Structure formats: structure tokens, C-alpha cells
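User: Can you predict the 3D structure for this chain?
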Amino acid sequence: MRREFAAAFILAACALLAWQLMETSAVRTLLGDFRAFYCGGSLVLHGADPYASGPLLRCEQTPAPFGLHSAREADLPAPFPGYALAAFAVFSLLPYPVAAAAWFLLLLVCTTLACIFLGRLCDRPAFAAFAFIAVAFSVAVIPYGELAPIILAALTGGALALRRGVNTASVLALGVLALLPHVALPVFLALFIWNKAMRWPIVVIGIVLACLDVAVGGPNLALAYFLRVLPNHAASEIGFVTQYSVTWLAQGIGAPDRLALIAGNASYAAMVVAGIWFGGLVSKRFRDPAFLMLIPAACAVTGGSFIHYSEITLALPAALLLYVRSTGVPKVLAAVAAVLVALPWQAVVTQPALMIPIAAGAITIAAVVLQLSPRYSLRIGAGATLFCALCILAAWHFGPQTAPHTAGRPFDPTLAEASWAKLISDQTSSSGIVWWIPKLPTWSGLLALFASGVMAAAGRE
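Assistant: Here is the predicted structure, written as C-alpha cells:
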């Protein structure tokens, strides 16, 4: 029966992924984020500025088959440091459709590896780990070509290697994790502070990345990333409906752009410190160095000035490991976090039919991943169904509630973020209740995860 259920679930997940691939293809956003990665890498390969609006837009406007993303009036920015764009330059050696196919296969392989590593980390079969992330990855990650599968494989593989004392594999995983600097930073710092064996490797990785960053485009381009690109990019998505950041929250309650950005940056700094501190304490409490990577990564995607749901999925390993290792109230909070964070609730606003896979996913996570009784699993599924229905009714009653967002300051016209900010402001900016309601479970789950970590660190049951 277990094999039959696993086979049925895997087939259902594949069908869900195929459905979402067709949905994104129909509106020409298939692997959209990868298009920006690809074009940024191509510009680096040819010695051009990967952050400049004109060259990036011309690359992204090149027609592509199969519904692959192609830009129109605005370009999709590639806000990565030079060393990360150098990695994407390898893909730009291929024609774009071929590179997109290779990237898609890489995401599937990394998803498989992440399931294997997460299962071993948390004493669960790989299928349970797959059931944990399947709905989120099929709906909100893989169809858009996001980095999350690669980062999740590096995060879980590195944590597992760290637990086993295989430092070489840990170092390699950290190098991959650095593709997302805001996630890698607290992990690097936590390991440097709490793990003596990793201090010199982290120093070496930092030096290598800095040298590669400068070698890609020179010191001016490296500085431009921090001084111009990051501030403009965070500001460009202040009102974006897919944002889960403190900046989006702050502007939603009426804060001016400048104050909203300050709030987001302050929250990120606070969560970095918290992640480092509690990561070390939880690691000592359970005598498991894997927490030194998982807790800081989870804190890095909580709050901040620029956070999408695909990045929030990187908090899932911390939630599951806390659930497995803790008892009492921390275990209950970790279970709540696991269910709430693992499902893309906001997607039902634009695709009401997703209520079915989300409800099924909630039941499967409760029964297979958390190993709860059928009674509790069905109750969780019923709750998920009712909440999705509430989101759908709110969207029907209030309408899409998109509204132009007037930027508090002008954008650098030479950067891709200028046209991107205008597109978001005109078409997908809002802070209406339609977008607040479906984000509540995700925010609540992240808070529950943080509370679980704090209580576990304090030894409270």
C-alpha cells in the first residue's frame, strides 16, 4: 500500500508540475527567472555590464519557443554578484532553448538530491522529503526557473556533511550556497563563530569569491553591485504582490518607501544576528552541527527587504529537523511551521483550482512527513481547504486590488531595475487585503519556526 501511495503521489506531483509549466508557458513566463540569469551571464561572458538596462533588455527580448520567457517593454534584472553571474555564463555558451532545457534538468536533479539529503538529515525516507516540498516546488519554484532547488540541495547536503565531519563536501556546499549571498552570509558567520574546523575554509572561500567577483568585471562593477544594484532592486519591488518582506508589510500599512526599506534592512540584520546566535545554541542543545547551517538560513528568509516565497522554502529543513529532534511545545510549533511554510497559499488567489493540491499536500505532509494520525491529518486538510476557500472568496469579493505604486525616489535609469520598477508599479503592485490574507499562513509559519528554535535553544519543552 505504501508503494502504491508513493507512486500515486509522485504521478500526481508530476501532473501538477506539468500543469504549472503549461500555465507559465501560456503567458510566456516559463523559466522567466532563468532568462535573467542567462542574459546576465551572457553579458559577463562578453565583457558587458550585466546590470545595465539596454543590453539586458535586448538579450531578454530575443524571441524564444515553447512559451519561454521573453521580455517586452521591461527587462527582468539579474541582481547577482559577479561571481554568481560567472557561473551562469557557462549556460550562455548554449543557445537559449538548449540552456533552458539543461537548467530545467538541473533543477530536477537538485530537487532529487535535496530530497535524499533532507531525508537522511531528518531520519525520513526520501519520499517523505519529496512529499514535503513537492507542491511548493511544482507551483512556485521550478516553473519559473528559480534557484531554490540548487540552494536547497547545497544547504541540506552541506548540513549532512557537516554532521558527518566531511569538511570538503561542506566547503563545496558553501560555495554553491554563496549564489544567494543574503542566505549564505549568516550561514558563513555562524560556522565561523561556532565551528573552529570551518574557520579557515570559510576565510579561503571568502577570498576566492571576492577575487572572482573582481576578476569578472573589475572593482567598479563589484562595488556597483553593493552600492547601486542592491538598493535599487530592493526599492523596485516595494509594492510587488509576491513579496513577503518586512518592507512590503511596512509600505502596506502606510510607511513611506524610505522608511519601509530601512525597516526591511533592519529586520534582516536582526534576523542574521538571531540566526547566528540561536543556530549555535540549538546546535549545542542537540549536539548536531547541521543546525549551524539550517537555522541561520531559515532566519535569513524571515523578514528582510526582498523575499519571495521560493526563498522561504529554504526554511523547511530547519522546521523538519526541529520537529524530529525536539519535544513538547517546540515540536508542536515546528509541526505548525512545517505545514504552513511548505504550501504556496497565495497561489490560490490567481489559480483557485490549486486549492485541491494544496489541501492534498497538507494531508500528505501531516500523515507522511510529520507522521500524525489519520484523524489529525484529515483535520489539517480540512483546515487548509477552508482557508483556501476564504482566500478565493476574498479575491472574488474584493477583486484583484492592484494599484500603481508611486516610488518615493527616482531609480537609476541606467539600471534594469528602472523599467522593472515601472512594470511592477503599473501592473502588479498592491497592499490590499486580497494579498494579505494568503500570506498570513506563511508569515505565521516562519514566526512559529523562530519560536520553536528559541524555545529549543532555551531547553524548554
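Residues 199-236 form the longest helix (38 residues). The mean pLDDT is 93.
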